[in-house]
From TrEMBL:
This is Unannotated protein. Coiled coil: none annotated. Keywords: Glutamine amidotransferase. The keyword Transmembrane does not apply.
Length: 222
C-alpha cells in the first residue's frame, strides 16, 4: 500500500526510485490510483503537503465526479499555484478526468470559475444529453511515448465535458504538443502531452492493463 505519511520523501538509500505525489483534496479519487501507481515501482504519497507535492518527481491531480467540486476543493489546497510552480520548474504534472477539463475554458453553464487553472486555449463544454461512462478507443498521437505499446487501445471514461477542438499550434522552436483523440461521430481530445504538463480525460486507474501501462510509461518519463 502507498505511504500516506507526510515524512521526508527522499530516502538516500533509494534515491533512484521515482517519487509520485497524488494531490489530496476532500473528494479526490485517490485510493485506486495510488494502488495502480505503486505497481509501477514508484514511491507513492497521497498528500496535500505543499513541500512534498512541489518536490516529488511527478504530481498527479486526480479526478472526482463533479468538475465544480474539483475546482472548489483544489482552491482550498492552492492547486492552481502548485501546478504553475511545478510547470515553471519543468516538473511533471498529470491531470486526470475532470482535472483535465479545468485546464481549458469552461462554458458558463458549468458555473465554475476556473480562470487560474487554465493552461491551454480552447473550450471544454457539455454536449446536449451526452455523457460518457465506459470504454472508448483512443487513437494515440504517433509520436506519443506515453502510449508506447498501447496505441489504439480502449480506456475507461467518465465525463460530461468534452474538448472537441485542439487550437494550440507550436510556433518557432517550440515542440508541438502530442494530442490523442477518441474518434467517433463527434470526436474529442483524450490526452494532451505538452512538455511537463500531461492531461488525460480517461481514468487510467480504471482502464485495466492499458491504463496501468500508461501510468508505467509516465513514471518512466520522470
Amino acid at each position: 500500500m502507498p505511504d500516506l505519511d507526510d515524512s521526508p520523501i527522499r530516502d538516500e538509500s533509494n534515491d533512484e526510485t521515482p517519487i509520485v505525489a497524488i494531490l489530496d483534496y476532500i473528494s479526490a479519487q485517490s485510493s485506486e490510483l495510488a494502488e495502480a501507481l505503486s505497481a509501477t515501482g514508484a514511491d507513492v504519497y497521497v498528500t496535500s503537503n505543499w513541500a512534498m507535492c512541489s518536490s516529488a518527481d511527478g504530481l498527479i491531480i486526480p479526478s472526482h465526479d463533479s468538475v465544480f467540486d474539483v475546482a472548489r476543493e483544489l482552491n482550498l489546497v492552492r492547486g492552481a499555484e502548485l501546478i504553475d510552480s511545478r510547470l515553471i520548474a519543468s516538473k511533471s504534472v498529470l491531470a486526470i478526468g475532470h482535472a483535465f477539463n479545468l485546464l481549458f475554458e469552461l462554458d458558463e453553464k458549468s458555473k465554475v470559475n476556473n480562470e487560474k487553472f487554465q493552461q491551454w486555449p480552447g473550450a471544454s463544454t457539455a454536449r446536449e444529453d451526452e455523457t460518457i461512462l465506459g470504454w472508448q478507443k483512443v487513437k494515440a498521437d504517433e509520436n506519443s511515448k506515453l502510449f508506447a505499446n498501447i496505441h489504439d487501445q480502449e480506456f475507461f471514461f467518465e465525463n460530461q465535458l468534452f474538448v472537441s477542438q485542439w487550437v494550440l499550434d507550436a510556433q518557432g522552436p517550440l515542440t508541438a504538443p502530442k494530442v490523442s483523440w477518441v474518434r467517433s461521430t463527434e470526436s474529442f481530445v483524450a490526452t494532451v502531452e505538452n512538455g511537463p504538463l500531461i492531461a488525460t480525460q480517461f481514468l487510467p486507474e480504471k482502464s485495466k492493463s492499458a491504463g496501468h501501462t500508461f501510468l508505467k510509461n509516465w513514471v518512466k518519463s520522470l
